[in-house]
Design a protein that fits this description.
The radius of gyration is 19 Å and the shape is globular. Helix 1 (3-14) crosses helix 14 and helix 4 packs parallel to helix 6 (113-121). The chain has helices at 3-14, 30-36, 57-71, 75-91, 105-109, 113-121, 145-151, 175-184, 199-207, 224-233, 241-246, 258-263, 275-278, 282-293, 297-309, 315-330; strands at residues 17-23, 94-102, 129-137, 160-164, 188-193, 213-216, 236-239, 267-270. An 8-stranded parallel beta sheet has the order 1-2-3-4-5-6-7-8. It contains 16 helices and 8 strands. Strand 3, helix 7 and strand 4 form a beta-alpha-beta unit. It has a single domain, classed as Metal-dependent hydrolases (TIM Barrel, Alpha-Beta Barrel). It is α/β, with parallel strands linked by helices. It holds the Pfam family A_deaminase. InterPro entries: A_deaminase_dom, Ado/ade_deaminase, Metal_Hydrolase. Its cofactor is Zn(2+).
Amino acid sequence: MSEAQSELEDFIRRIPKTETHLHVEGALPYELLNELDGERFPATPEFRTPGYRYPGFVEFENLLIDHAIVWFNSAERYHLACKRMFEKMVSLNIKYVETSFHLHMIEFIGVDGPEIISAIKSAAPEGLEVKVIGGMVRNGCTEVMRPVFEKLHEWDELDGIDLHGQEWHALEDWTPPLWKRCRDAGKIIKCHAGEFGGPDKIYEALDTLGSRRIQHGVRAVEDKVLVKRLADEGVILDVCPLSNVKLGVFPALEDHSLRELVNAGVVCTISTDDPLCFANDILDEYRALANGLGFSRKELGQFAKNGFEHSQLDSSLKREYIAQIDAAIVS
């Protein structure tokens, strides 16, 4: 490793960081599956090798579900997985995480939603603040889930909601009222948009759901008016560059739209999305931004600061972590 690379590595490790776009089920530590059944889950499956690319989103989603449901069958299993996951985050100097759990697991495994949230939060070690987001799919308002959705705004331990999954499904009538109830209740309001869907899905998230936190949003560059609006209105894009490449949203990292978005003044954070499927961690993301997209230490630091500035952390902690980042940039 050259001296410059060594200094970059030290900088990336030293700065405090956030994860604001992370799925619990998609962040299941793969080694837990390997320990559970090494024959079925070999140490290095093909989909976790560096050069692997998913044929499409459906294939990715099916693989994720097939692996996640083997482990996540109880609140206790959520706790055990998150304990391992959060311990690694602390070792990477992550201080704050917003992680979504798939609300439809309530129907799949018959476990109470607040019980799962409690299991996730109780796994957080000292020094890591965890916010739990309830994620749901666009066509997921089943007979079982409808009464759950109607009460989400009353769940005290639920910090926010997110719409994820297959982006091409139409937005159904139940969704805007749910987003309004949760927004009025002070929840974090997110929406996956502009990954496999185009700019129209981002407009939908902004104007129909009232979301100012967009998960991905990287195809906004196809509409220059939209990009300017995102910048002018301070909309936050929680971007996962390596995920976008592995899923074929961009053919290569060098083609990613992040540089164009940042140059246009759009506020972006950096996260890992689904480490189970992409075999990545937050250090990999920052390394890729520096080595593949040419972002400077100052720019990497700004991504980290964005995560804290738009977090739900206490203001004194925000200032402390941002000050640590600023000190690392100039050291």
